[in-house]
């Protein structure tokens, strides 16, 4: 499969120039495969700079030891603390130069991998991603999110290509807390709710394919997640890990920039400004899906969105995804903070504006505090007010 695809559509605007980074050049997956990967890493470079989070590195250390000890590789280790931020990248640039690194190896969750990919992109070096949890598809994608040192989302960067090598070792993923896979399910299932809104009407072959893959991904997750979470390491568990780490990445790869995130990720981005690191990416995104569906219900009277929200609430309860602000440890959020989150979510460059209708600050706040509302009566569908705020928000 070609790694890059360039296509010009009939209208020559800057948006119509479509560059796709479809997939990593190579994906290795299996149980315990990390131990056998040093020669494949060496094909990309013999002086790897390992970029990791301190916590995930110590959890993964036993699994990483064989490649760290491999004679053909001269490893140096560095951390991306405090976050995937401009300050961390500056420190890592220095570390890469000092070590004369010729390949970057990211080990960890989404933020460690985003940092490693962006560092490699900036230094024009190959990159290997080794996810230690199934919490996102960051190991696959040609995209990095940049945060402040305090963990607030600032911007994302599209990269020239997907990683050169992705090593998915199920033994390693199994060491991660169960909560990370649950979050990964939340992040992956968002693909359907966002891609169907942003691109569901597209007539472009690859985008149709991406949207349909997102539907398949949703169905796999709805059907298999509960069983997978009950038996870590089982076949069905590996299938769900593949869904969150790999298939979710495939959709972003085929769909490209036009098959964008919509309100669920926009709400996530807003929430990072008050949540800090109290909840993980996929948990905030999962809650964001409910907010998006609530907006579609309230502002469009969309019955399908209403049914989808009820279905997801049941699913979330089964697997432990957050249904409301209190589940994100934001039960005590003040009205001012909520307003701040909504304002950031609605900033002019936000993907929330890809919804087929416009959303006011008040409407967004109303949706954010009513994600668990029972099926709407006509009255509540048509009358958007902040009256629900009192039950969830203290002034
Ligand atoms: Zn995401």
Task: Write structural notes for this entry.
The chain has 395 residues and is α/β, with parallel strands linked by helices. It has 3 domains: 20-174, Rossmann fold (3-Layer(aba) Sandwich), CATH 3.40.50.1970; 178-258; 263-392, Dehydroquinate synthase-like - alpha domain (Dehydroquinate synthase-like, alpha domain, Up-down Bundle). Helix content is 51%, strand content 13%. The chain has 15 helices and 10 strands. The protein has a 6-stranded parallel sheet with strand order 3-10-7-6-4-5, with helices on both faces. A two-stranded antiparallel ribbon has the order 1-2. Strands 8-9 form a two-stranded antiparallel sheet. β1 and β2 (17-21) form a beta hairpin. α7 (205-230) packs antiparallel against α8 (235-255). It is globular. The model is unreliable at 1-16 and 379-388 (pLDDT under 50). The protein binds zinc ion. Zinc ion binds at residues 136, 187, 265, 281, 285.
Quick structural summary:
The chain has helices at 38-42, 54-69, 86-99, 110-123, 170-174, 178-199, 205-230, 235-255, 263-275, 281-300, 303-319, 335-345, 361-368, 378-382, 389-392; strands at residues 4-8, 17-21, 27-30, 48-52, 76-79, 103-108, 127-131, 143-147, 153-158, 165-169. The chain is an alpha/beta fold and 395 residues long.
């Amino acid at each position: 499969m070609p790694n890059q695809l360039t296509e010009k559509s009939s209208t020559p605007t800057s948006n119509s120039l479509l560059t796709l980074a479809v997939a990593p050049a190579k994906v290795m997956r299996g149980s315990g495969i990390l131990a056998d990967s040093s020669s494949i890493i060496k094909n990309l470079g013999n002086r790897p700079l390992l970029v990791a989070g301190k916590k995930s590195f110590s959890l993964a250390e036993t699994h990483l030891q064989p490649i760290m000890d491999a004679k053909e590789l001269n490893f140096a280790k560095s951390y991306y603390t405090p976050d995937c931020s401009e300050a961390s990248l500056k420190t890592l640039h220095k570390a890469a130069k000092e070590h004369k690194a010729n390949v970057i190896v990211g080990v960890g969750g989404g933020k460690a991998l985003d940092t490693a990919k962006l560092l490699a992109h900036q230094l024009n070096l190959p990159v290997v991603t080794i996810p230690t949890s199934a919490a996102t598809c960051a190991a696959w994608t040609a995209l990095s999110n940049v945060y402040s040192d305090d963990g607030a989302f600032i911007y994302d960067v599209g990269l020239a290509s997907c990683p050169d090598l992705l090593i998915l070792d199920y033994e390693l993923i199994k060491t991660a807390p169960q909560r990370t896979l649950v979050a990964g399910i939340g992040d992956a299932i968002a693909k359907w709710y966002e891609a169907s809104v942003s691109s569901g009407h597209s007539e472009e072959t690859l985008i149709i394919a991406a949207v349909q893959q997102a539907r398949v991904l949703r169905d796999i997750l709805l059907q298999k997640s509960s069983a997978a979470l009950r038996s870590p390491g089982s076949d069905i568990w590996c299938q769900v890990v593949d869904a969150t780490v790999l298939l979710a990445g495939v959709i972003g790869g085929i769909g490209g920039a036009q098959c964008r995130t919509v309100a669920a990720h926009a709400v996530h981005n807003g929430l990072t400004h008050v949540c800090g690191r109290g909840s993980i990416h996929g948990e905030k995104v999962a809650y964001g899906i409910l907010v998006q569906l609530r907006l579609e219900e309230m502002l469009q009277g969309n019955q399908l969105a209403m049914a989808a929200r009820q279905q997801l609430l049941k699913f979330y309860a089964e697997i432990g995804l957050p249904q409301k602000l209190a589940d994100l440890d934001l039960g005590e959020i003040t009205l001012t903070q909520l307003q701040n989150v909504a304002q950031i979510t609605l900033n002019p460059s936000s993907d929330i504006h890809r919804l087929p209708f416009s959303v006011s600050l008040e409407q967004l706040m109303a949706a954010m505090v009513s994600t668990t509302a029972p099926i709407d009566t006509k009255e509540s569908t048509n009358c958007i007010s902040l009256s629900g705020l009192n039950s969830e928000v203290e002034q």
